[in-house]
């Protein structure tokens, strides 16, 4: 059987609600190393990453920043220091970057949603849950924390919302059968068992639309609904290849994906919902989904809300991109959680990169220059210890490749470093400085240094996918051509001549005690500065408040009896767009409007004719009381179906509440 010559690998698409942190870099760097490794092995690789840009959180962040959601995500994704800049800095060699706000992706999602609806896999129903008003989020029983909102800790109340559902449950048996027939589909193995247990509990259908979130892809046949995250997000893996759009034409070449790499908390969506969607679309399933662990800090997952994020750009600046890539790939057992700490990072840099790798290169190159002026002579004599070194080095490529196939990334690096350590030991065993003392040992000395150069050439080739900059620096010092660096040319003795040039130390050794003290001091200074800033802001706000004139207030405020929260929620306040508006010959007070309320057109008569002309209102978005019982007016000639919200003005006039253009008709007002 011909082995497939393509490799399609994906990272999750990231929420650009804030700047990305080192935890996000972890997944991306791992995928990058795999993509580079496969490319080196001659595969045609498609490495996809991108951003997942819709949803309430982004809408809220944008509103807080006073910009539109699109402006907000544009800045985080494309702006200076944003997602794309970070991936450039970290040498991420993605082939394609998808943004879920890209037109072609929106077109694909709408086609997919429509198809699933047309064939009965998506249906309309009612979403029941616990609603948290400030967070505008529905929660299930199991998501609540002590009966409260898991995000803000506030009260929730029972609520219902019309929504579309995808029939995930229908695919439960087929999913279980698929796992059984494709044992490598879900990895690691322990996580597969969690997925099976989840299905066996009884698989519920999945809510795939919202009416309360306007920043999303509209459901094509019912635009007051937007697609609720997962259909929009998961479809990226095929829309980015051109499925359902004309932007790209790579679906046939690359689908099904070879690997979806995801964090453990989203493995369920990738191994249950996504395959069920693909089954419904009658498309093949990805070969493998790998759920990796989290990078923890202070004992918990990094998150902005916990204030414990680590900025990857700052780390790269301080320690070099490759030091950070190495730490992420080597330190954390792939599949398990791992802890980020400055101590662990510095220890790794010093022991593996400065000591083992850096010293091997600098000692070898320095000795080749010192004893042979940089060019190794052709006359060489084999001797004791050579065979063992050659064996270890020669076996390294196959072992590293096997680890990479099994997604054992730290083990792959360990194999390289085993050979590096073996080569360092070889220097101690052969003691070139002692050989150099006697001219009779010249051929032997040449062989020792030649063997070391070959070992370093292997290390250069095999480290390139993990540490691209370092591999380039090594190649430069060793005088390697592109051909010398080819995966196919990895045969010990494959390069016969060496002319080396000494360069800078690959990784200068860090004085750990001094560095940690400096970091602690910098952290303290940061905390102090933040506290001082907060105190100054508080003081300024208090001063501003004291200086401000007392706000003017309406006179004779009329109070209503207090109502319960549940009673308040019974009043349905919604945004509607004024389609037509006219004065009535029989009334000086009333304007008659037709409005689109997100679902239908309705007529409302409003007593604002003295203050507004029809052209002031046509096309505008206004607030209405939508569930007010219809009221006959003008002796039954008209029926007003609701009320337009307006504030009383001091002169007895009215000021209508208008909403910005990007608020959709039908949006709830709270
Ligand atoms: N947008 C969704 C994914 C949709 S994929 C169709 C999402 N985005 S996310 O930005 O919240 O997370 C993206 C990835 O980053 C996830 O795989 C998540 O596990 C990973 N990480 C976020 N924090 C992490 C750590 N602290 N450590 C390791 N990975 C972490 O989920």
UniProtKB/TrEMBL annotation:
<keyword id="KW-0436">Ligase</keyword>
<feature type="domain" description="TRNA-binding">
    <location>
        <begin position="567"/>
        <end position="670"/>
    </location>
</feature>
<keyword id="KW-0175">Coiled coil</keyword>
<dbReference type="Pfam" id="PF01588">
    <property type="entry name" value="tRNA_bind"/>
</dbReference>
<dbReference type="GO" id="GO:0005524">
    <property type="term" value="F:ATP binding"/>
</dbReference>
<dbReference type="InterPro" id="IPR009080">
    <property type="entry name" value="tRNAsynth_Ia_anticodon-bd"/>
</dbReference>
<keyword id="KW-0067">ATP-binding</keyword>
<dbReference type="Pfam" id="PF19303">
    <property type="entry name" value="Anticodon_3"/>
</dbReference>
<keyword id="KW-0820">tRNA-binding</keyword>
<keyword id="KW-0694">RNA-binding</keyword>
<feature type="binding site">
    <location>
        <position position="149"/>
    </location>
    <ligand>
        <name>Zn(2+)</name>
    </ligand>
</feature>
<dbReference type="GO" id="GO:0000049">
    <property type="term" value="F:tRNA binding"/>
</dbReference>
<dbReference type="InterPro" id="IPR002547">
    <property type="entry name" value="tRNA-bd_dom"/>
</dbReference>
<dbReference type="InterPro" id="IPR014729">
    <property type="entry name" value="Rossmann-like_a/b/a_fold"/>
</dbReference>
<dbReference type="InterPro" id="IPR041872">
    <property type="entry name" value="Anticodon_Met"/>
</dbReference>
<keyword id="KW-0648">Protein biosynthesis</keyword>
<comment type="subunit">
    <text>Homodimer.</text>
</comment>
<keyword id="KW-0479">Metal-binding</keyword>
<dbReference type="InterPro" id="IPR014758">
    <property type="entry name" value="Met-tRNA_synth"/>
</dbReference>
<keyword id="KW-0862">Zinc</keyword>
<dbReference type="Pfam" id="PF09334">
    <property type="entry name" value="tRNA-synt_1g"/>
</dbReference>
<feature type="binding site">
    <location>
        <position position="132"/>
    </location>
    <ligand>
        <name>Zn(2+)</name>
    </ligand>
</feature>
<keyword id="KW-0030">Aminoacyl-tRNA synthetase</keyword>
<dbReference type="GO" id="GO:0004825">
    <property type="term" value="F:methionine-tRNA ligase activity"/>
</dbReference>
<dbReference type="InterPro" id="IPR004495">
    <property type="entry name" value="Met-tRNA-synth_bsu_C"/>
</dbReference>
<dbReference type="InterPro" id="IPR001412">
    <property type="entry name" value="aa-tRNA-synth_I_CS"/>
</dbReference>
<dbReference type="GO" id="GO:0005737">
    <property type="term" value="C:cytoplasm"/>
</dbReference>
<comment type="similarity">
    <text>Belongs to the class-I aminoacyl-tRNA synthetase family. MetG type 2A subfamily.</text>
</comment>
<keyword id="KW-0547">Nucleotide-binding</keyword>
<dbReference type="GO" id="GO:0046872">
    <property type="term" value="F:metal ion binding"/>
</dbReference>
<dbReference type="GO" id="GO:0006431">
    <property type="term" value="P:methionyl-tRNA aminoacylation"/>
</dbReference>
<protein>
    <recommendedName>
        <fullName>Methionine--tRNA ligase</fullName>
        <ecNumber>6.1.1.10</ecNumber>
    </recommendedName>
</protein>
<feature type="binding site">
    <location>
        <position position="135"/>
    </location>
    <ligand>
        <name>Zn(2+)</name>
    </ligand>
</feature>
<feature type="short sequence motif" description="'KMSKS' region">
    <location>
        <begin position="301"/>
        <end position="305"/>
    </location>
</feature>
<dbReference type="InterPro" id="IPR033911">
    <property type="entry name" value="MetRS_core"/>
</dbReference>
<dbReference type="InterPro" id="IPR015413">
    <property type="entry name" value="Methionyl/Leucyl_tRNA_Synth"/>
</dbReference>
<comment type="function">
    <text>Is required not only for elongation of protein synthesis but also for the initiation of all mRNA translation through initiator tRNA(fMet) aminoacylation.</text>
</comment>
<feature type="coiled-coil region">
    <location>
        <begin position="513"/>
        <end position="547"/>
    </location>
</feature>
<dbReference type="InterPro" id="IPR012340">
    <property type="entry name" value="NA-bd_OB-fold"/>
</dbReference>
<feature type="short sequence motif" description="'HIGH' region">
    <location>
        <begin position="14"/>
        <end position="24"/>
    </location>
</feature>
<feature type="binding site">
    <location>
        <position position="152"/>
    </location>
    <ligand>
        <name>Zn(2+)</name>
    </ligand>
</feature>
<keyword id="KW-0963">Cytoplasm</keyword>
């Amino acid at each position: 059987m011909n082995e497939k010559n393509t490799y399609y690998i994906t990272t999750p698409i990231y929420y650009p609600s804030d700047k990305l942190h080192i935890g996000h870099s972890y997944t991306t760097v791992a995928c990058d190393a795999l993509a580079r490794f496969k490319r080196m092995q001659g595969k045609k690789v498609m490495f996809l990453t991108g951003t997942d840009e819709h949803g309430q959180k982004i809408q809220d962040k944008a509103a807080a920043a006073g910009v539109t959601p699109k402006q907000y995500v544009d800045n985080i994704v494309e702006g200076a220091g944003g997602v794309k800049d970070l991936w450039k800095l970290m040498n991420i060699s993605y082939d394609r970057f998808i943004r879920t706000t890209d037109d072609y992706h929106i077109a694909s999602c709408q086609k997919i949603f429509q198809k699933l609806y047309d064939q009965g896999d998506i249906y309309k129903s009612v979403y029941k849950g616990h609603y948290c008003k400030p967070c505008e989020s529905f929660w299930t029983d199991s998501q609540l924390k002590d009966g409260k909102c898991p995000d803000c800790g506030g009260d929730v109340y029972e609520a219902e919302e019309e929504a579309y559902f995808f029939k995930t449950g229908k695919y439960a048996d087929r999913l279980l059968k698929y796992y059984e027939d494709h044992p490598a589909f879900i990895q690691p193995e322990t996580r597969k068992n969690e997925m099976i247990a989840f299905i066996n509990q009884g698989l519920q259908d999945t809510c795939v639309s919202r009416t309360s979130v306007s920043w999303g892809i509209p459901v094509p046949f019912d635009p007051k609904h937007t697609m609720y995250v997962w259909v929009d997000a998961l479809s990226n893996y095929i829309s980015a290849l051109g499925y359902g759009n004309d932007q790209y034409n790579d679906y046939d070449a690359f689908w099904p994906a070879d690997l979806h790499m995801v964090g453990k908390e989203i493995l369920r969506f990738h191994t249950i919902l996504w395959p069920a969607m693909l089954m419904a679309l009658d498309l093949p399933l990805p070969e493998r989904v790998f759920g990796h662990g989290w990078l923890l800090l202070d004992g918990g997952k990094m998150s902005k809300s916990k204030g414990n994020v680590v900025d990857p750009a700052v780390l790269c600046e301080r320690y070099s991109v490759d030091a950070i890539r190495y730490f992420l790939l080597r330190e954390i057992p792939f599949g398990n959680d791992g802890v980020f700490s400055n101590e662990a990072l510095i220890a790794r840099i010093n022991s593996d990169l400065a000591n083992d790798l850096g010293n091997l290169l600098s000692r070898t190159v320095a000795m080749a220059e010192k004893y042979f002026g940089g060019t190794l002579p052709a006359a060489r004599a084999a001797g004791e210890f050579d065979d063992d070194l050659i064996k270890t080095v020669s076996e390294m490529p196959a072992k590293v490749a096997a680890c990479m196939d099994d997604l054992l990334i730290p083990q792959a690096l360990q194999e390289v470093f085993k050979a590096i350590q073996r080569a360092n030991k070889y220097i101690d065993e052969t003691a070139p400085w002692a050989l150099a003392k006697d001219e009779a040992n010249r051929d032997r000395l040449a062989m020792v240094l030649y063997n070391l150069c070959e070992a370093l050439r292997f290390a250069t080739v095999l480290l390139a996918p993990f540490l691209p900059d370092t591999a380039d620096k090594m190649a430069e010092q060793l005088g390697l051509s592109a051909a010398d660096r080819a995966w196919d040319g990895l045969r010990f003795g494959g390069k016969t001549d060496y002319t080396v040039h000494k360069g800078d130390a690959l990784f200068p050794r860090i004085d750990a005690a001094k560095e940690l003290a400096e970091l602690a001091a910098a952290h303290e200074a940061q905390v102090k500065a933040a506290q001082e800033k907060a105190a100054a802001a508080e003081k300024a706000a208090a001063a501003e408040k004291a200086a401000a004139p007392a706000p003017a207030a309406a006179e004779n405020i009329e109070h209503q009896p207090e109502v319960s929260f549940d009673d308040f929620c019974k009043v349905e306040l919604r945004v509607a767009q004024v389609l037509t508006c006219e004065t009535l010959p029989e009334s000086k007070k009333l304007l008659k409007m037709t409005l689109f309320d997100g679902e239908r057109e309705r007529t409302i008569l409003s007593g604002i004719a003295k203050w507004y002309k029809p052209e002031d209102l046509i096309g505008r978005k206004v607030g209405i009381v939508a569930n007010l019982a219809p009221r006959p007016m003008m002796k039954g000639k008209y029926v007003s179906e609701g009320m337009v919200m307006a504030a009383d003005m001091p002169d007895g006039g009215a000021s209508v509440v208008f909403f910005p253009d990007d608020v959709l008709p039908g949006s709830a007002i709270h």
